[in-house]
Amino acid sequence: MARRDGGIHPADTCSSPQNRAHTVADTDTSQPGTRVEFRNISKVFTNKRTSTTALDDVSLTVEPGEIIGIIGYSGAGKSTLVRMINGLDTPTSGELLLDGVDVVGMPEKKLRQLRRRIGMIFQQFNLFSSRTAAGNIAYPLKLAGVGAAERKRRVQELLEFVGLGDKGDSYPEQLSGGQKQRVGIARALATNPSLLLADEATSALDPETTHDVLDLLRKVNRELGITIVVITHEMDVVRKIANKVAVMENGRVVEWGSVYEVFSDPQTEVARKFVATTLRNTPDQVEADDLLAGEGRLFTINLTENSGFFTAAAHARSAGVSINIVHGGITTLEHHSFGKVTVRLTGDDAPIETFRDALDRTTDIEEILR
Fold first, then answer.
1. What's the rounded Cα separation, in Å, for the pair 248 and 59?
2. What gap in Å lies between CA 220 and CA 162, rounded to an integer?
3. Are 241 and 217 in contact (CB under 8 A)?
4. How far apart are the C-alpha atoms of 87 and 290, rounded to whole Å?
5. Which residue in 144, 273, 324, 332 has a CA-CA distance of 20 to 30 Å to 248?
């Protein structure tokens, strides 16, 4: 697996749902969210004729309070992986630890208790059409045995937290997609979870509504300290919300690291494809053909804080080379800037070769050839 982190230490303490503060906005963020650790998890589905490996020796750790994006194409294994966390699926082999406790093989009674610490947000909202927004949020509280007066107080508190303070009496059919998902998030927070699982939570939403929902999830993480695991096939969702990203392919985690690391320097082909969907900083074939119609030589250069581009460009200009940026883009993630630019160099070949050789020692540079 490319770029795997190590040296991770478990938190000394973990807050229980009962000990979490009642007021949503005032929850003590010094209490960590859940620490999730997959150790050599494999899952093989079998029938009389065939067997299918859904997960293949996956090891991955999510620290308390992190937001991790798990991304992959359909069939990559990401949903199966997350179903292990709340006991909806059981691995064929391996361990799955929540705050140091292995949940594999845990009795159903204990699993039900565990699930109260885990909130779920779904792609299609999964709201009860016969219940109001308030009724949907109150449902898990009623199952947990919370009294009517406390349920009413908690539901209104959550409605205010997700920006739907005046929508408690509305039924799902009266709400927009974004409002339905906000109700879903409020319901997921009802029992004070320390871990939130979001399974393609924005796939059914338009871009503007997606942005609003991701802002709300960041608020949940920032103000409540809850660990959030986001399953998605959209790299832009990862870019906007996550601290770390796991890229899955064929049941394996093939790349793992900070969002900045994976976006600025993807190590695998599948990660490069995902990054390309959200960072349009390399010319496509049509754009490249148009650019090649001009004079000079074209180079696409990977820009990072240590790429040395500006120094090399200054030397080339002093040697009479004209340098023009003709395509590209710069992105900032985790307080670091990176990107790619395509430049047109016009002048003598010798200083152009010097420019390329200098950058070839410090970053990725590729000439676009006719």
1. 12
2. 9
3. yes
4. 54
5. 332
Indicate if the alpha-carbon torsion angle 249, 255, 259, 265 is positive or negative. Answer: negative
- pTM (two decimals): 0.76
Task: For residue 107, give every residue at least 6 positions away whose Cβ sits within 8 Å of its Cβ, in sequence order, or none.
Answer: none
> Rounded distance, CA 232 to CA 246, Å?
11
CB-CB contact of 152 with 168 (8 Å): no
Q: In DSSP terms, which residues pair with 322 in a beta bridge? A: 346
The Cα–Cα gap between 58 and 39 comes to: 7
Q: How far apart are CA 338 and CA 290, in angstroms?
A: 25
Q: What is the pLDDT of residues 162-204, one digit of tens each?
A: 999 999 999 999 999 999 999 999 999 999 999 999 988 888 8
Q: Distance between terminal CA atoms of the chain?
A: 36
Give the residues across from 199 on adjacent strands. 231
Q: What share of the chain is helix, strand, coil (3-state, %, to 5)?
A: 35, 25, 35
Q: Strand pairing of 51-62 and 36-46? A: antiparallel
Helices (H), 196-303: 207-224, 235-241, 259-264, 269-278, 285-292
pLDDT tens digits along 27-58? 444 457 999 999 999 999 998 889 999 999 99
Of 81, 101, 90, 88, the closest CA to residue 34 belongs to: 101
The two beta strands, 93-98 and 67-71, are unpaired
Element (H, E) at 188: helix 177-189
User: What are φ and ψ of residue 352, in 5° steps?
Assistant: -65, -40
> How far apart, in whole angstroms, are the C-alpha atoms of residue 170 and residue 296?
63
Question: Which position has the token pair 């959200």?
Answer: 278
Reduce the DSSP state of residue 141 to 3 states and report it.
helix
332: amino acid identity, one letter: T
